[in-house]
């Protein structure tokens, strides 16, 4: 078919033209950001008569320059909330513990059963660091905790508990021979999925104490944690179930024909393959769940998002929310991006080997 | 068996007594009775949908029969865990679609059940696996993963995997139907060798050359019944029923 020459020229021109326009727009945005965030930024502030920082230079720069001084001034509060100032090395160490734990867990050479023991040990150490009360550490009640440790605790403990729960629920949903257990699993998933997370958190913080015997008081953080585990468990269970359904029936039959018991079959044949199929979806859920922890502000727990917001409520610092939110965004992004990277590494490493290109005979 | 006759030299490997099965309202097995002696090699043929696969899948309890009795090595099969475990240990199965575990190496495919079910030490299981992989002529592929092998190689691994459990009985469910024509031979050769070693075998297959060569008895099934059974010469050369004659005509015209 003959193509009009003008059409061909236009086609050749359009792609570079679009690229150029987009590049210019991006460059303009980048320049504005650079000018605001670096060139005209206020990095430190002089002290006023009351030995508090004098925020006038920042006020003067509003609109064209960032006030990073607010981050310098407030980062300890943003990261650790109302945790006693002198003991803030403890939550800091707890955060490092988490990061080190995640770092070790992604290296395949550490994938062995003892890794579970390491997780238990590190999570226990985090508890000791945060609560104290032993080894000469002063006791710090959970309602004084705040900031990044809260976010990491909710997400890590939440996922560590929700993932095994999700696997059991997904298996239960497929247990044809156990109708009652199957119904319970379906009811659990549908009930939790049908309710917003916020209302679950409310229920956990307001209604749960009503059901407990008098004299029992579960910590607010623990209640929020329970709500999270239930919530994440339901969503992860559906992801795991998708992986189970994707597995060909022949795999179950071959395992059964070899005499493997149900749990051997599940552990050695079914789950390794099913979970591998759904790594991207699992990590997707993990990332969403990590960010959902910010909803605990609704029941008055000071997670990272809430401490950041609170930091700029003080009259002197009002109006400098952008800088703080950028910091929060950077922290959230660092964790979520790392999870995404881990997901890609896992997918590559666990990818089933494929048939080599046919070798010439 | 209900009537233990003293003259029987040994317990039959497999006995079916009036076995029925329904899929919903479809009556797929209609009263099968059969006795297979130890070491006997049986080929089951028949048109698709005749219940051949369903019958052998009932023998190792991948399918449940609803009426009648099935005995393997004298044990009636049921969901009773000990009976089930015994059957699964004594009966090996080879599937049409191989069903190797793609996430495990060929060697691990072969050692998994001997280690986990028979309780063998890893070194012993690996030695045994190499022995059987050598018998099916692919010891050099032991470290590869199933998706890296050709169909014929995968099916030979599947045979080795089943043999590693040292079963007394082997079931084959159309083992060559999913293979490219040039790979059928290599799998049949392994099966012929196995037959000549005295293994009790039940094979669902359309490979009539194989049937003629190794079968002690051929069962012709149609519509959930065993229509005819006999030595290969009787079945092929003197078919009695109209249905078998039609079936043989179709098969012979195909090839």
Question: What is the string of SSEs of chain A from the N terminus onward?
Answer: HHHHHHHHHHHHHH
Unreliable segments of 5+ consecutive residues of chain B = 1-7
Helical content class of chain B? 25-40%
Structural class of chain A: mainly alpha
Count the strands of chain B?
Answer: 10
Q: Number of helical runs of chain B?
A: 9
* Residue share in β-strands of chain A: under 5%
* CATH homologous superfamily classification of the largest domain in chain A: MetI-like
Strand order in the sheet with the most strands of chain B: 6-7-8-3-9-10
Q: Most extensive chain contact?
A: A-B, 22 and 27 residues
Q: Would you write up a description of this structure?
A:
The complex is a heterodimer of chains A (361) and B (255). Chain A is an all-alpha fold and 361 residues long. Chain A folds into 2 domains: 52 residues, no CATH class; 210 residues, MetI-like (MetI-like fold). The N terminus of chain B is likely disordered. Chain B has 255 residues and is of the alpha/beta class. Chain B has a 6-stranded mixed β-sheet, sandwiched between helices. Helices cover 38% and strands 24% of the residues of chain B.
List keywords for this structure.
heterodimer, A: 361 residues, mainly alpha, MetI-like fold, 2 domains, globular, disordered C terminus, B: 255 residues, alpha/beta, 6-stranded mixed sheet, 4-stranded antiparallel sheet, 9 helices, disordered N terminus
Short structural description:
The complex is a heterodimer of chains A (361) and B (255). With 361 residues, chain A is mostly helical.
Q: How are the secondary structure elements laid out?
A:
The complex is a heterodimer of chains A (361) and B (255).
Chain A: H1 5-39, H2 56-61, H3 69-80, H4 89-105, H5 114-131, H6 148-173, H7 179-193, H8 197-211, H9 220-246, H10 249-257, H11 262-277, H12 279-292, H13 304-311, H14 321-350
Chain B: E1 14-23, E2 26-36, E3 41-45, H1 52-59, E4 67-72, E5 75-76, H2 81-90, E6 91-94, H3 106-116, H4 122-135, H5 151-163, E7 169-173, H6 181-196, E8 200-204, H7 208-214, E9 217-222, E10 225-230, H8 232-237, H9 242-254
Parallel strand pairs in B: 3-8, 3-9, 6-7, 7-8
Antiparallel strand pairs in B: 1-2, 1-4, 4-5, 9-10
């Amino acid at each position: 078919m003959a193509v009009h020459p003008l059409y061909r020229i236009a086609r050749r021109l359009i792609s570079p033209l679009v690229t150029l326009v987009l590049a210019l727009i991006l460059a303009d945005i980048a320049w504005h950001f650079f000018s605001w965030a670096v060139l005209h930024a206020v990095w430190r502030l002089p002290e006023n008569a009351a030995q508090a920082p004098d925020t006038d230079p920042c006020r003067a720069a509003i609109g064209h320059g960032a006030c990073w001084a607010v981050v310098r001034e407030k980062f300890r509060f943003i990261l650790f909330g109302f945790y006693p100032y002198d003991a803030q090395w403890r939550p800091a160490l707890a955060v490092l513990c988490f990061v080190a734990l995640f770092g070790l867990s992604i290296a395949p050479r550490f994938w062995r059963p003892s890794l579970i023991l390491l997780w238990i040990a590190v999570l226990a150490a985090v508890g000791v660091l945060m609560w104290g009360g032993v080894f000469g550490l002063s006791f710090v009640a959970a309602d004084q905790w705040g900031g990044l440790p809260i976010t990491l605790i909710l997400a890590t403990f939440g996922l560590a508990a929700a993932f095994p729960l999700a696997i059991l629920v997904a298996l239960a949903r497929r247990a044809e021979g156990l109708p009652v257990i199957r119904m319970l699993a379906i009811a659990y998933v549908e009930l939790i999925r049908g309710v917003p997370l916020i209302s679950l958190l409310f229920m956990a913080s307001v209604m749960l104490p009503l059901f407990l015997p008098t004299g029992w008081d579960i910590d607010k953080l623990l209640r929020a944690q329970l709500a999270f585990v239930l919530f994440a468990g339901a969503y992860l269970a559906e992801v795991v179930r998708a992986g189970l359904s994707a597995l060909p029936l022949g795999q179950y039959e071959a395992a059964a024909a070899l005499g493997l018991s149900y749990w051997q079959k599940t552990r050695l044949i079914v789950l390794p393959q099913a979970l591998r199929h759904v790594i991207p979806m699992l990590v997707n859920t993990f990332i969403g769940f990590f960010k959902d922890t910010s909803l605990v502000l609704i029941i008055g727990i000071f997670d990272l998002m809430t401490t950041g917001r609170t930091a700029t409520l003080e009259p002197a610092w009002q109006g400098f929310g952008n800088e703080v939110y950028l910091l929060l965004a950077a922290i959230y992004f660092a964790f979520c991006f790392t999870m995404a990277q881990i997901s890609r590494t896992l997918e590559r490493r666990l990818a089933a080997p494929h048939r080599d290109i046919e070798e010439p005979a | 068996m209900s009537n233990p006759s003293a003259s029987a030299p040994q317990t039959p490997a497999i006995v079916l007594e009036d076995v029925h099965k329904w899929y919903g309202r479809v009556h797929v097995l209609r009263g099968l009775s059969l006795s297979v002696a130890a070491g006997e090699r049986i080929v089951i043929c028949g048109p698709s949908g005749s219940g051949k696969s369903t019958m052998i899948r009932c023998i190792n309890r991948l399918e449940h029969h609803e009426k009648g009795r099935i005995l393997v090595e004298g044990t009636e099969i049921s969901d009773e865990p000990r009976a089930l475990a015994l059957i699964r240990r004594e009966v090996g199965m080879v599937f049409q679609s191989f069903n190797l575990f793609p996430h495990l190496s060929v060697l691990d495919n072969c050692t998994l059940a001997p280690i986990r079910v028979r309780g063998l030490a890893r070194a012993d299981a690996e030695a045994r696996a190499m022995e059987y992989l050598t018998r099916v002529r692919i010891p050099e592929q032991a470290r590869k993963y199933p998706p890296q092998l050709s169909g014929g190689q995968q099916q030979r691994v599947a045979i080795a995997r089943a043999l590693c459990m040292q079963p007394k009985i082997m079931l084959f469910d159309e083992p060559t139907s999913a293979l490219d024509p040039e790979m059928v031979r290599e799998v049949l050769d392994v099966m012929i060798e196995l037959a000549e070693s005295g293994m009790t075998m039940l094979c669902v297959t359309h490979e009539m050359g194989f049937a003629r060569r190794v079968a002690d008895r051929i069962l012709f099934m149609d519509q959930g019944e065993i229509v005819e059974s006999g030595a290969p010469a009787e079945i092929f050369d003197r078919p009695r029923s109209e249905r078998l004659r039609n079936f043989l005509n179709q098969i012979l015209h195909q090839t």
